[in-house]
Write a structure and sequence with these properties.
The chain is of the alpha/beta class. It has one domain: Rossmann fold. Strands 2-1-3-4-5 form a five-stranded parallel β-sheet, with helices on both faces. The relative contact order is 0.19.
């Protein structure tokens, strides 16, 4: 079964880039959201298997959205992303409910699939 993805980022250009990249590698992008509130609404409606979630959103940060999603009865996998390095987020990233982190420059379908693979 193809992994379904929701892309959450406040920059339309990155959402467009990420959609093209992920769809070209065989992933199914089922939706996009530009902030935390719309991300939560989209997850409830679309039920993606994976949420690619920007850390810095205009209304609430990605860490808070990831924690909220982890508390759902059937939570999607969450991978945080940023243009900054993982070390810039320190312990917050280590304590996060997300499966992992990918720098935006390193985004690929294969990298996402490795992070969400069972086992």
């Amino acid at each position: 079964m193809t992994l379904t993805v929701l892309i959450v980022d406040d920059h339309a250009g990155f959402r467009h880039f990420a959609r093209g990249l992920l769809e070209a590698t065989g992933l199914s992008v089922v939706g996009e959201a530009e902030d935390g509130r719309s991300a939560l609404d989209a997850v409830a409606k679309l039920r993606p298997g994976l949420v690619l979630l920007d850390v810095m959103l205009p209304d609430v940060d990605g860490f808070a959205v990831a924690d909220h999603l982890a508390a759902l009865a059937e939570p999607p996998a969450v991978v945080l992303t940023s243009s900054r390095d993982a070390r810039d987020f320190g312990e917050r990233l280590a304590r996060s409910a997300a499966r992992g982190f990918i720098r935006k420059d390193d985004l690929s379908g294969a990298a996402l699939e490795r992070l969400v693979a069972p086992g």
